[in-house]
Design brief:
By secondary structure, this protein is an alpha+beta fold. The chain is built from three helices and four strands. The protein has a single domain, classed as Alpha-Beta Plaits. The model has no long low-confidence stretch (mean pLDDT about 90).
């Protein structure tokens, strides 16, 4: 008899992304936290992703954001992550993505 978990996990695809962004308008850590919180909250609600600031907590104008997405289709994971990146670029023109790493696990 096949395990319940073994059958379900066979169709799980996980996409992860690490973005390092430059926030030129930030003049303090408080400014940065407010901007990053606004961006991450909006993207989490819009795309149903897990997202958080994961590094560079002590820098005023640099933030590293981690993003994760789970789906039963690999193409959907890529589509969601790319949509998140496009939304940041389009809706936040003053924020520059300076580094981007993406990976998918099946």
């Amino acid at each position: 008899m096949e395990s319940f978990w073994a059958a379900d996990w066979a169709f799980v695809n996980i996409g992860v992304c690490r973005l390092k962004i430059h926030i030129p308008g930030s003049q303090s850590l408080k400014d940065k936290r407010s901007i990053v919180k606004s961006i991450t909250s909006r993207l989490q609600k819009q795309f149903n992703i897990s997202i958080a600031e994961v590094d560079d907590h002590d820098l005023w104008q640099i933030a590293t954001i981690g993003i994760a997405c789970v789906s039963n289709h690999n193409y959907r994971v890529d589509e969601v992550i790319n949509s998140v990146i496009s939304t940041i670029e389009h809706d936040y023109p003053t924020i520059e993505i300076i580094e981007k790493e993406m990976d998918t696990y099946s």
